[in-house]
């Protein structure tokens, strides 16, 4: 028997789930420990070992691998907490990253920010100009060397950067995605001068056409690469010292894992790792429950995350935006706002009550944690409303101070708005539901989907307290709340469920229909590279699956659409099918009649995603059957709870999830207490416990 462990490091809590490959799951939760997140990982692993009833050393020695999702990379970029980075590019092209293709003026901005011209900031540059240098070299659009690399100009440029204290360098040369020979030589020259300097090459990080986005992706990868290398190195050393013999894997934005030793080389691929675990877990659970259209929602301590699963597959995208700069890496499409359990309630200059995006995080935490926090948060409001037990969280190990929560709400919200503390708490709860419902609309409805055709999965420490209300906001009829051992650690369950997923891509623009042999050559080369990459991970796979795709666009248009390409040998008929699939998909995304076939179709980027299927498939254990639908045996008491200001505080049954059985039906209003979360069934709704211990809440009667 071997264990698989998933560890999800969030801004507030670190969650872990262990699967023993025999149908047993164990979970643990511990506070995150910034800036040294590795301590929080060790703490949560110690909690797993305690729950398992084994010494930590024995548990780790029996572990096949640990899959780790980290928030450190994303946080470092968002907060600008990155080291100085040097940038080397082709002579005459240094200013491309400062001009930003004009995109940097608007990417990532909301409509109201774009309309406020005077309030816009122009300081979006990634690095100071003194750290951007040019070298003599030139390739043409076919990758042919036109001007050879002047190695002395490289040495002079690198010495200048090192003299300024730069310890990480990004290299992005013109047309290097067609021929990486000059970039690779520059890395050799850098390491001849200083072997410890971190070097990121655009031909490895983002081998795509479009100079600005390729360079910005490479620079950001160089910004987080050294920190990721140091963090993972420290963590792996600590794990080895405690007995881990299997590999440490790191979750990537594309929904799959990679060996920790490999991750820093393309560090930017890990920025969304902590966001994608829940989506991967939703796919796994959906297969067990027969759900193919899923809205995955995760309300943690800091953020509210939403991802989609359509027809059994997570929705993917080829790029994202951070700090106004494009990131060109394949990723699961996950939308996020700062609206977690620790989101701070505040009053803006116009006297309006707002919730988030600032968070109390794990330090100092909500006021009710008694760790120095004085700002009112969602968690404080839930305690005042009776949703959270005054006895505390984590089975009573995390004490909660209701007086501190009331004081924070009274001084910061209630008195300024001339409300009672109870009404102010109810207002905070209502705003949280409204803004999470708004993000659901953006993610589902604005993408062209009907929410009534989806099942919503809700998890995270705070998600089950709100899910029924925000699902009803958009008309979702069924909500599944995973209970049992993965109640609030569902993202960690997703990490434990993940396989090894690697992607390779290359841009080679051409007019369709392309010769089938040319396309086949690109895919064969990408698949051969991926096969070697998978072997380097040091793991055994049950099988390997390859998925091919091409990004296409109408000639002279910017919008590219990714189209899947069939397996096997390609012929002219297959290429014709690819073109037709592009036109159909374009019409689905942008509307019938918006395409322009007469302009022609261009193929831009060729991509292959390889999945190494690991010999583990964590399944939720089956729950014993109830003797009948009445859950009276699980009722642990009654307390006054307010989940709807129109009804006020009402006597509400409270249930202990450990006593729930398959077939129990819980009628709202009701609260279900789990050591790591609390589930709310609002008035007018009901929930049924399924064979795996999940609670399915039906919202139809209210919506």
Automatic annotation (TrEMBL):
The name this protein carries in UniProt is Hydantoinase/oxoprolinase family protein
**Domain Acetophenone carboxylase-like C-terminal, which positions?**
516-691
Question: Could you tell me which residue ranges the Hydantoinase A/oxoprolinase domain spans?
Answer: 214-501
Positions of the Hydantoinase/oxoprolinase N-terminal domain: 5-192
Q: Name one Pfam family in it.
A: Hydant_A_N
What PANTHER family does the record tag this protein with?
Answer: 5-OXOPROLINASE RELATED, HYPOTHETICAL 5-OXOPROLINASE (EUROFUNG)-RELATED
Q: From what organism does this protein derive?
A: Cryptosporangium japonicum
What's the superkingdom here?
Bacteria
